[in-house]
Specification:
It comes from Kribbella jejuensis. Pfam families: Glycolipid_bind (PF06475). This is Glycolipid-binding protein. This protein has one helix at residues 110-114; strands spanning 9-14, 19-27, 30-39, 42-52, 58-67, 70-79, 82-85, 88-89, 98-101, 122-124, 127-130, 137-140, 143-149, 153-160, 165-172, 177-180, 184-186. It is built from one helix and 17 strands. It has one domain. It has a 14-stranded antiparallel β-sheet with strand order 8-7-6-5-4-3-2-1-17-16-15-14-13-10, with no helix packed on it. A three-stranded mixed β-sheet has the order 9-11-12, with no helix packed on it.
Amino acid sequence: MKLTALPVAASWTHTGVRTGFEVLFASAGRLRGRTSAREGDLLWYVGYDITVDADWTTESVHAVNSTADGDHEVVLRRTPDGWTVDGTARPDLDGCLDVDFESSAVTNTLPIHRLPFEVGTSYEVPAAFVRAEDLTVTRLEQRYTLTSSDEQRHVFHYESSTFDFECELTYDAAGLVLDYPGIAVRDR
């Protein structure tokens, strides 16, 4: 599967579970984004700054959020010794090379860029999962299987045993989500 360069900016409209909007600004080795949404009675804003190495493995994450209860901040770092969250070692995240934000369609691009997918191949891709409401970090078990690919689109079967969820994710030529059923649709 061959990917083109990421655009400098992109945006998504949240659909289904929440109402909201996400924007991304991308540069070499860095993804900066903002999401604001309403999910049920909860209103929140999450801003993230993700640094990846040349192989698209997450190195560091800085996130802030705001809710009616106030503001939160979290810093994640991944080194050869493992993950830390706000400076505290997190061995439960061993084996995770990616971060995944509950509030974001963007973070689903990380394993797509990092792994050598071919049609029919599956990869277990656990991630450090950051919740939107309070930025708590847990382990997310997930699997991606490339089901079809051409120059314009790549379709993956996505499964998360953590949430007992599966769907078909459609990506553009640059490896950004176009359609995440029930979550978000790319609008730019």
